[in-house]
Amino acid sequence: MAAELPRAGSVRVRVPGYRGKSLIPVLSWLVTYRLARPGAEVSWYLERQQGPRSFGALLAGLGWQDVERTRDGALARISARPPPLPEAALPEDALPQDALPQDALAEAELPEARQFSAVIGGHELTFLADYGVFSPDRIDDGSRLLAEVMLRRPPAGVIADIGVGYGPLAIAAVRGGVAERAVATDVDCIALWLAERNAAACGVRMDVHCTPDPLQAESTPLTVCNVPTHINAAQSAELMRGLAQRARGGRELLIVVHASLEARYARHLATAGLKAVRHPGPSHVVLEATGRP
Fold first, then answer.
1. Sign of CA dihedral 144, 149, 150, 155
2. Which of 213, 147, 216 is nearest to 183 (CA)?
3. If pLDDT is split at 50, 70 and 90, which confidence band does 4 have?
4. CATH number of 115-290
5. Does domain 2-106 have CATH number 3.40.50.150?
6. Which of 37, 162, 169, 202 lies 20 to 30 Å from 269 when distance is taken between CA atoms?
7. What is the pLDDT of residues 253-264, one digit of tens each?
8. Cα(67)–Cα(57) distance, rounded to whole angstroms?
């Protein structure tokens, strides 16, 4: 289907601030091989604190041509022409204006994500983790503590991982025998794409949903969540209400938070009528709650 998408003579890209420059390789690929016609005018918009000069240098290093920096209101604007297509991508006659040929797409694979290996529950697992996802080079301390507590649970059949990231908790649960399959949610489609690839590589069945609502995933005997702390108070309260709802009817909920924030999230659970059992670690605390049947 990608070969049938119309390609534009002018493309504008608003670079997300929270990922820094980690998305440049994949955005460059997306614009060059999916969005822009050959010779198209491409404008990249970013905040000044994102480093327009170094951003332009990175584009030039990826083969972008005629890179120029200007101002556009409060934003920095970098205009450039996409890298020349490889000769293998060009037919003998003129290149169509609306699409690349299928053989060109085969020659233009997405840049491979970085990866690392970690031992969780006695299993050495390898994860693709790149493009600005959380903790891209190691299992973060909170997730590791949550995995330790989770892997002590009896088999649950199906586990839900809310805010799955690139998938270490859900994958560890299935590989460790806590669940036969996993369902997962996240608001980050890039993280979900990586989670699906990681699950497939590890032989784990995982269904993913791009949503901020924990209730969009099917009801499961066990739900886990490494609670994000960068969201605002209203979003945090809504997330905790959804997590508490998942624990209704005798189902189990395990969340991990930084020790300094434990009281805040324990109050959320108490407000929902759930009493939390603590599993403290060096820097984080896992809160375990089970709703009454």
1. positive
2. 216
3. low
4. 3.40.50.150
5. yes
6. 169
7. 999 999 999 999
8. 8
